[in-house]
Amino acid sequence: MKSLQKSAASIKEKHSIQKAYLFLILIGLPLGLLILSLTLGRYQIGPIDVLKVILSPIFPSIAEGIPDIAKQLIFHIRLPRILAALLIGASYGATGTAFQAIFKNPLVDSNILGVTSGAGFGAALALLFLGDPWLVQVSAFVFGLVAVFLSFFGSRLYRTSPLLILTLMGILVGSFFGSLTSLLKYAADPLDSLPAITFWLLGSLTGITWQNLMPLIILTIFGLIYLWTIRWRLNILSLGDAEASALGVDPTRMKLGIILFSTLMTAVAVSVSGVIGWVGLVIPHAGRLIVGPEHKRLLPVSISFGAAFLMIIDDLARTLLPGEIPLGVLTGLIGVPILVLLMRRSRTGW
Amino acid sequence: MLLEASNISYAYLPGKTVLHDVSLQLNAGETLYILGKNGCGKTTLLSCLAGLLKPNTGRVYLDGTRIEDFSAAERAKRIGLIPQMHTPAFAYTVRQMVMMGRAPHLPWLGSPTEKDHLIVEEALEQVGLIDLQDRPYTEVSGGEQQLVLIARGLAQKCPILLMDEPTAHLDLSNQHRVMEIVHQLGQQGLSFTISSHEPNDALAYADNVLLLSGGWVTEVGEPQEVLTEPLMSAVYGIQTEVIYQNENGVKKARAVLPRQPLAVKPDSLHEEDSFLNMVFQNRKEKPQIILVTGLSGSGKTSWCKQMIKEAAASGYSVEGILSPGIFESGRKTGIEVVDLVSGERKRLARLREEGQGEISTPRWVFDPDVLVWGNQRLQNSAESDLLIIDELGPLEFLRNKGLLAGLERLDQGQFEVACVVVRSSLLPKALQRWPNAVVVRGQI
Amino acid sequence: MNKFKYSIILLVIISSLVITACATGDLETPNMEITVSDYEAPSELETKEPIGDQSRFLIKADPELMEPVTVLYEAFFNGKSPIFVQSDPDLLVEPPGEYENFYDELPAVFLTDGAMYPKNVSEELEAFIQFAVSTDGQQTLIKAGLLPESIELTDQAGNTVSLNLPIRDVLSAYGPVTAMIYSVDAEDRLVSASYLGARDPLGSSVMEKMDSRFPGIQGDESFSQSEFNIEEAAMLEPDLIIGNARSGWLDTVAALDIPVFLFDAETPKALKEAVLLTGQIFGPHSTAQAEAWVRYYESIVGTIEEKMAEIPIEDRVKVLFTGTEPLRVASGDMFQSYIIESAGGISASSELEGYWNNINLEQVVIWNPDVIIVPPYGGASVEAITESQEWQILDAVKDGKVYRMPKLVAPWDTPAPDAVLGIIWMAQQLYPERIDLDCSTEAEFFYNTFFDYEIMDEELAKICSIN
Questions:
Q1: Which of A316, C125, C149, C261 is the most exposed place for a label (fewest CB within 10 A)?
Q2: What ipTM did this prediction achieve?
Q3: Under an 8 A CB cutoff, do A42 and C355 touch?
Q4: CA atoms of C286 and C288, how far apart (whole Å)
Q5: Which fold is adopted by the domain B266-441?
Q6: Of B49, B70, B87, B90, which to mutate for an interface test with A (greatest number of A Cβ within 10 Å)?
Q7: Count of domains in chain A?
């Protein structure tokens, strides 16, 4: 028993050092990128000036002599947009990790239940008939939830192998809404609403304002807190319903909670940014390569990496060319090679 | 009494009951084995006992309280389920797998603490896996995986562990390693309920054994009383043989083995003290059914023909019927019935593709009139030394049609020596009906 | 035996499929017959009853033009001969003169070198002039060998198209060219057309007043840049199909064996060429109308250019042309950029390529335009920009210089004849002190001259109000 305590103590010591490093990286990475991203943009503002502007709400005198337009740009254009990238990346990283756990499948993300297709349809519908950006966001959010609702309760009609049926229903509902979106695109005017729908479906953070950022901030933070608190139990859910139940965890109720929170997070993210794929799929893999599959450690890593990844992608999207590059295109172009590399590296299992 | 099930039944779908009226009891420190064929309801029973499935009727009591009155976490603190080995989707380390056993002891939103780490290490130490704790679970051997799951059950700190086929897919040494650890944990006061396909393990480690057959309890009791040849034969549907050992003057069962069909040649009838010779010698006092078995085309009818010849040669009277195949250009196109007394032949069946009829199998269509005739032959024939019935098949055993007179005569004991042709797949049915029958291979 | 059976079954299946296809398609045989007879009727020339000597008008004609006038006169008045005089005529026929002032009324040009100038207007005379420039008049002159039976034109896709004249029935699947057809006074030849800007309330109400056949011949559902209903086209049996050179359906139309004339007018030069080609398709009268439009366009652009010559490039107004959403802007390749340049402005987004580009606000801040223009379609609105908190950092928004491009039917920023008004309007917005062109005056003249439409004061007020 003594030797046990000793070994536990040494492990504890080793862990706490590792933990401290990891913690620093996980907090420092997105925070550093946030500040770095604020200095990037088509409009040239020096890094020192950016820092001064950031600090100006606390020390008003520091930013004297910097043109108003720079302050405006930083607070009203760059900051909301970068925050959106951070939150959406974190959200996709976390929900992707959670979904991979509850589906016992490392190749799914929170889109598996059709939330993106539903939101895409909602957005296309609003772009075609309403046009107001705020209504587009609301409609995307609502239809994202509708799609998941249909998948989830559609799968309840069957008694056998609910996980497989749930996946299948998700794919079916996703295809169904995909077809509806195609129908709308077919009906849309090729001169105005069609390009708008197409660009929305490719994903972009270009139109972010503080106003449409608010629901994203609120829902994402609530969702992240929920997933953070239950993260250790994701391990148990990933063993399957029967085992989880035998280990004293109610899998049905817990999965319902995870699906509910993840769907709210994903739907609000999609409604703000359009369709940005691959983040929820790639990030958990990258995390597993570094800290292993154990979700207590994996979830924080996924949140941090997701936030960092999307901030980098968005920096590229808004600075490379005068025109915007769709985010969904960049995440695919960068995310897929990364995923392939990771799959090579982690041949031994997830 | 820690765990008690009283008269539980369970059906996954209405009308398809897989557990019928099962009752059992488990006391502290006891190991209960559940034996039975594949699909007899063992895993379902364990799931009911673990509270994962709610029986349609009957109750499961844990510490005297109905199991469904516990919350999932409270239940998991009292009873643990060690599932059949499987590969999880993610390569958790051994330590992380074991840590999951702490789930019921943690608050709803909590994560493991220092205390939990100590308990996990203790559990790993107990099963001897402390050195493998940081290896991925998916990369350790099958036996070690099973031990990890046991350690997880230990970390769960519950007095009862249910194990579903713990030694399945393990080699002999790993089976031994796992079962010895289970045994020692039992000595320390843990209670186990183990579903298994290893009657020999039950003889070695069980305090009690429950035999499950088709969802019904066949027998419960101490292994030495329950693991007997007739019961095991009935449960597994094969003839079994129990090997005994003399231990300090007490005859104790050590192993249960399947009994293989005898290889008997009809001409051994003439040999002194041979099996056939003995059977015919004792036929008056002890009538004997001989089940002639084998795959289709293995020569069962030929065996019977030779038996008839040999019996006749020794002066025994023979009656009954034979049903040889009708062959046209090398292909079996029909079945005949031959009355052994009169030598009369009638065509009993033709290929199904040539027509349809009321009484048919996927391959053959039977002539009802010939069946009536065959039954009359079997009913009316006089008593004789040897009764041949070739053959009793799916029509008779499964559909209650065909040569039912044959079944009746055998059931009523109206024979002295009976040679009955039964195909291998129907052997369990035949043995269930006539447990004292002897099985021989129908090969010459 | 089996083979025979199968071929019978196959035959039955195929024939039932053919029958179903025929029954569901628009290509029904009875309909076709009706269409043919409807179509043949107008080819019999409409002639007038002979008129009394008192009411006959006197004609003074150039010697070379006497023959064509006689041919037309005899055809119109059922064989009666015209009366030619040397002085005091009711109708003067001579080669069309040089134009000094655009605002003069255009003469009726019935031959390339022949125009009619009425001196004493009477009912008969007006009807005769109408006839002279109509399709029937054109056909009369062709029969007499005075106009060519066919011409060869090279369209804007570079194909040589041979046309049998006159073109009586034309199907336009390209909105801007439909507007051009109206502006060269050939709208009576349209059998079905795709319209530009005729779907909103203003556009459709004006179109209904401009053309009594309007909602009937609107074919946007069947024919547009992206769609082409081939069965419907076959039923209409046009003499000519007009399309956009970049439409996806061009290959399918070849099956109809009807001449196809393609337009591609995304620059001012191509626009002028397109209008002239449209005129040439429909004959001397339309050609004269087209030439008049080109002269008008060039004079407007010339006037502005002259005025702008004094202003150095760096002092010119920088204009950003946004799309259906504020953060989608016109590229340098688009017609909107040419309009800005023609009006003396600088296109802020001229470095972009292709079609509408999605950009971010930071890029707009870098361009820092003086004026922002939103288009009059696709739900774009000035308020989407002026009421947005984020856009307030831009000088143009702070100064209230966000305007909506006007339209009557065709939006003024599209490569349609109306684009000339877009240039005038924009020049007036950009340099109100310097440019003395007046949107209202020019719009009134433009629609009167090229669309034969008297624009109403409230319509003028709506489209030309200075923001």
A1: C149
A2: 0.85
A3: no
A4: 5
A5: Rossmann fold (3.40.50)
A6: B90
A7: 1
